[in-house]
Amino acid sequence: MIKIISDSACDLKKAYTEQNNIGIVPFNIIINEDTSLKDKIDIQSEELLEMMKNDSQFFAKTSQPSPDDYKIEFEKAAKQGCDILCFTITSELSGSYQSAEIAKKIIQEEYDVDIRVIDSLSASLGQAILINKAIEMVHQDKSLDEIEDYVNKIKLTGKIFLLVDTLKYLEKGGRISKSKKIIGSALSLKPILKLENGKLDIVDKVIGKKRAIKNMMRLVNSKKNKSDKSHEFFVVHADSKKEASEIYDELKTENNLPFDIEVLSPVLVCHSGYGSVAVGIINTEV
Question: Which spans of this chain does the record mark as coiled coil (predicted)?
Answer without folding.
Answer: none
